[in-house]
Amino acid sequence: MLDAAVAPEITLVTQAQPRPQGYWRSVGRKLQRDPVTIAFGILLLAIVGMAVFAPLVAGANPSTGSILHRLAPIGTPGHWLGTDENGRDMWARLCYGGRLSLLAGVAPVVMALVIGGLLGVIAGYAGGFVNALIMRIMDVFYAFPSVLLAIAICGVLGNGLTNVILALSLVFIPPLARISETVTAQVRRLDFVEAARASASSPAQVIRHHVLANVLGPIMVYATSLISVSIILASGLSFLGLGVVPPTPEWGVMLNALREAIYVQPYVAALPGVMIFLTSMCFNLLSDGLRSAMDVKLNP
Amino acid sequence: MLLFAARRLLLAIPVLLGVSLVVFVLVHLAPGNAIDMLLPPEASARVVAEVKAAFGFDKPLYMQYLLWLRSALTGNFGVSIFNASPVLGQLFVALGNTFILAVLAAAVGFSFGIGLGLVAALHHGRWPDKLCSAIATAGVSLPNYWVAIVLVLFTAVLHNWLPAQGMGPDQVPLWDRGQYLILPVVSLALIPMGVIGRLVRATVLEVLGQEFVGALRAKGLGRGPIIRHICKNAAAPVLALMGLQFGYLLGGSILVETVFNWPGSGYLLNLAIFRRDIPVLQATVVVLAAFFVLLNLLVDIVQAAIDPRLRR
Question: pLDDT tens digits for B65-108?
């Protein structure tokens, strides 16, 4: 009975109970046996570390350089990743650029996770009129292709990191609201939620103690995969000149600025794109790894 | 079935109205206005008022919205502030150019994606699975604007095999200008290839786990017919995602179009943003979003035709 009611994307905390250890312990153990996820998790940690500790690891100032040393190739003494079109150290700029690129990639998803997730859980739990009201508004925003909406918002509001984060948050709220609504509506029909409601728990209590625990997992997995889209989009906006503006180091800005230099120093000019690709790949594979580790049915 | 289609069509109307309202509000939230871009700062108040009246910017916002909506419904999107030519004509040409790219990129991306997904799922856990999954995941993780630049470097700059940008001379018919299409189509096809490949793999694996596949095997059906059964069962979600991806190709080609200077709708949008050309901006976003809504509607209906369980 219970099994029949569970849709594929939900994994119930209670399902793993027969095992001696808890559900999250078993997820952790499965992740430990997944070399791909571990490897890319470590790579992601390295990229994040490189951005967070940029002042310590960069070894050079990202915004000053000598025009005499511009477009040095990879492996130049003193500039092991070469220099950009203004003679600034590439390694330092990639480190500092990671700060903005990661922020512009992660912050919108976190904001959309909180707002969209909350709206979705409320809609899915309440049902009826509240559900219709929230979800029809979401439908309107869902009706825009994501890149188009992000570009329209950024184009209208103007440049700047804040506007990029705002635009991308708006883009990611509807899909997160929709998935939380679906998952919540499925969990809500289950017996233990019914039991909690019958024992006179308030809706807030039921949501906090019974719904969220079962809903957060799938939503988080989905959000992790959105981060990879978000990083590509955020850098894309800067690439178009709609996001962060030069001379601030940011991977998309650097990619655009080095576009002309690709004829002179192709490998140096390709570096910002490689960083965007690697980071995005890490988040995608992390999301895949989490999904299969959290899916009780796939790996019994 | 007809009833379902009619109901979905009716439901699309409020969404379309909402879309038009969102776009209108968004565009009018913009700091700075088109009149300031058009007139020199020393223009007299009378001239400013006259120009404002000519573009209808003197009326209250809700009136502007209703007037714009009325003319937009009849296909009249006004004239461009920048060059005074009708918006509809510009948009029509640009959409056509984007449509060519989107259709070809969808064809390439979807066929490779389905191939990758099927090979991966049918060799689950072995090396073809790992290879195909890796290609698909790379496809969704690659920033396509960067791939476009790298492709230009290799095929146009280093080897001079293919033209680096543009659509080629207008006099030559489009089918003789195929070499201009290759690079943009390849760059655009990466994401749909990856997304569809990953979904096909997941869906086929799910179908493979169902009991009826075992039953088909048990009754002695060959590999080919079994794969056919699996494909039919996996078709509905894959089709839905294809519709969505095609919409993204139409509405999201701006980055690749910018790299290749492809005169499509994304390029037009980019120009409109930097020129603060409100009528063009508004019309491009609304028309692209409307296409997206209608596309999703079409996908819903086709899906319901394949899978009767979806007709609620």
Answer: 787 777 777 777 776 766 767 777 788 888 888 888 889 999 99
Angle A115-A118-A123 from CA coordinates, rounded to 5°: 125
Paired strand residues for A83? A89
Number of domains in chain B: 2
Task: Supply the pLDDT for residue B36.
Answer: 65
Cα B283-B285-B289 angle, rounded to 5 deg: 115
Domain of B161, CATH number, reads 1.10.3720.10
- Give A 267-296 residues with CB within 8 A of chain B: 269-270, 272-273, 276-277, 280-281, 284-285, 288
The total of other beta-carbon atoms located within 10 Å of residue A151's CB is 28
> Number of CB pairs < 8 Å for A and B?
130
DSSP state of A65: B
Residues A87, A145 contacting (CB under 8 angstroms): no
Residue A189: CB atoms within 10 A of its CB come to 9
* pLDDT, averaged across chain B: 80
Tens digits of residue pLDDT in A24-71: 777 778 777 778 888 888 888 988 888 888 787 777 777 776 766 776
Question: Of B73, B108, B124, which residue is a domain's last?
Answer: B73
Across-strand partners of A89? A83
Report pLDDT for A2. 42
Mutate to test the interface with B, among A141, A144, A282 (most CBs of B within 10 A): A144
pLDDT value of residue A298: 42
Which residues of chain A register pLDDT less than 50? Answer: 1-8, 298-300
Contacts of residue B201, Cβ cutoff 8 Å, sequence gap at least 6: B116, B117, B118, B120, B121, B129, B132, B133, B136
CATH number at residue A42: 1.10.3720.10
Per the CB < 8 A criterion, the answer to whether B299 and B8 are in contact is no
Q: How many residues are present in chain A?
A: 300
> B144 and B289: one domain?
yes
Strand partners for B79: B86
Q: Kindly give the interhelix angle for A266-294 and B127-141, rounded to the nearest 10 degrees.
A: 120
Phi, psi of A75 (to 5 degrees): 95, 5
Q: Is residue A159 part of a domain?
A: yes
Contacts of A136 in chain B (CB under 8 A): 14-15, 18
**Confidence band (pLDDT; 50, 70, 90) for B310?**
low
Q: For residue B202, give its domain range.
A: 89-311
Q: Give the amino acid at A214.
A: N
DSSP track, A168-195: HHHHHHHHHHHHHHHHHHHHHTSHHHHH
